[in-house]
Amino acid sequence: MTQLRPSMDWMLKDLAESVPGTRNVVVLTADGLRIAQYGTDEDTADRLAAACAGLQSLSVAIASEFPTGDRALRLVVIEAGGGFFYLMAAGARAYLAVLADEGVDAGLMGQQMRDLVARIGQHLTSPPRVEGQVVT
């Protein structure tokens, strides 16, 4: 898997450490490939990335029910027993996903995720794939 440049990894760490209760941070492509992770192993990050691809596709289908707007995923939040899941658009065909404990400050998490996307969003773009090849 392609990893973010080492100079950018600290930003994922910064997000995780700036919001108490953050467990895992994953950056992924729209088609479910892990770009980078913090606070988790590669297998878990890959499973989260694959699940997020389906979730972002589902959110676009739901957004199409609104009469106006661009129908793009901006933020999905799931509350489950044990914690919260956040998925945010982070650039063209790239997403930022976070798993957090039940006691996480949701407002702080949203703010820190938006700040991270603003800082490195253009670096999180995933080029489209054609016949298994990355188009550059």
From TrEMBL:
One Pfam family it belongs to: Robl_LC7
Q: Which residues form the Roadblock/LAMTOR2 domain?
A: 9-100
Question: At the top level of its lineage, which domain of life is listed?
Answer: Bacteria
Parts of the chain that traverse the membrane: none
InterPro entries tied to this protein = Mycobact_SerProt_Inhib_Rv3364c, Roadblock/LAMTOR2_dom
UniProt protein name: Roadblock/LC7 domain-containing protein
Q: Which organism is it from?
A: Actinocrinis puniceicyclus
